[in-house]
Design brief:
The structure is a single chain. The chain is α+β, with helices and mostly antiparallel strands and about 160 residues long. The protein has one domain: 2-C-methyl-D-erythritol 2,4-cyclodiphosphate synthase (60s Ribosomal Protein L30, Chain: A, 2-Layer Sandwich). The chain is built from five helices and seven strands; from the N terminus they run ββββαααβαβαβ. The strands form two sheets. Strands 4-1-7-5-6 form a five-stranded mixed β-sheet. Helix 1 packs parallel to helix 3 and helix 3 packs across helix 4. The longest helix is centred in the middle third of the chain and has 14 residues. Bound molecules: the ligand Nc1ccn([C@@H]2O[C@H](COP(=O)(O)O)[C@@H](O)[C@H]2O)c(=O)n1 and 2C-methyl-D-erythritol 2,4-cyclodiphosphate. The ligand Nc1ccn([C@@H]2O[C@H](COP(=O)(O)O)[C@@H](O)[C@H]2O)c(=O)n1 binds next to strand 6. Belongs to the IspF family. This is 2-C-methyl-D-erythritol 2,4-cyclodiphosphate synthase. It comes from Hornefia porci.
Length: about 160
C-alpha cells in the first residue's frame, strides 16, 4: 500500500463556471485555470500521482498545452487512474476536503463523490468529499479563492479484492 497527499488552490474568476467534483455549482462566478479548474479533483490527482511517485499534474498535463484548455478534470482523473494502474496500483480510498467560505457545498457533496468514483472506476464508498470554511479568515475566508486537499491510499491491484477496514 502507498499513501499520497495533494493540495491545490485556484483564484476566483468572475467570468467562469464553478466546477467542483465535476458538479457545476450555480453561484455566478467560477475559478481561474487552464482546465475547468476543478480544484478538489486536482488535489486528488496529485495525491494519486504522489502515492505512485509519478510526479504531479503539471508534469503530466502542462498548462501550456492547448489540449488541456478547458478540459474536464474528471477526464484528467481517468488518465491519472490509468497511470497508477500501469504501475500496478488501484485506489483503495480517498478523502478530499474543499476549503471555501462560499458557496455552501453540502447539497452537492454526494454528486461529487459519485462523479469522482465513476471517473476512477471504484464504488462511491471509497471516495469521501468534505467541505469546510476558514471562518472568514485568510484568502479562502475572504472569498479570493478555493483550496482543496486530498489524501489517498493506493493498493496493489493483485490484492484489490481485500476488504476495506
Ligand atoms: N463551503 C462550505 C463550507 C462548509 N460547509 C458545511 O458546513 C459545516 C461547517 O463548516 P465550518 O467551516 O464551520 O466547519 C461543514 O462541516 C460542512 O458540512 C459547506 O457545506 N460548504
Ligand atoms: C490542470 C492543469 C491542466 O493544464 O491546468 P490548471 O487548470 O491551470 O490547473 P493547475 O492546478 O494549475 O494544474 C496545472 C495543469 O495540470
Amino acid at each position: 500500500m502507498r499513501i499520497g497527499t495533494g493540495f491545490d488552490v485556484h483564484g476566483i474568476a468572475a467570468d467562469r463556471k464553478l466546477i467542483l467534483g465535476g458538479v457545476e455549482i450555480p453561484c455566478g462566478w467560477g475559478l481561474a485555470g487552464h482546465s475547468d479548474a476543478d480544484v478538489p479533483v486536482h488535489a486528488l490527482m496529485d495525491a494519486i500521482l504522489g502515492a505512485a511517485a509519478l510526479g504531479d499534474i503539471g508534469k503530466h498535463f502542462p498548462d501550456t498545452d492547448p489540449e488541456y484548455e478547458g478540459i474536464s478534470s474528471l477526464k484528467l482523473l481517468e488518465r491519472v487512474t490509468a497511470l497508477a494502474d500501469a504501475e500496478g496500483y488501484a485506489l483503495g480510498n480517498a478523502d478530499i476536503t474543499v476549503i471555501c467560505q462560499r458557496p455552501r457545498l453540502a447539497d452537492y457533496i454526494e454528486e461529487m463523490r459519485r462523479n469522482i468514483a465513476s471517473s476512477i472506476g471504484v464504488p462511491t464508498d471509497r471516495i469521501s468529499v468534505k467541505a469546510t470554511t476558514t471562518e472568514k479568515l485568510g484568502f479562502t475566508g475572504r472569498g479570493e479563492g478555493i483550496a482543496a486537499e486530498a489524501v489517498c491510499l493506493l493498493v496493489e491491484k493483485n490484492i484489490n479484492d481485500y476488504k476495506m477496514l
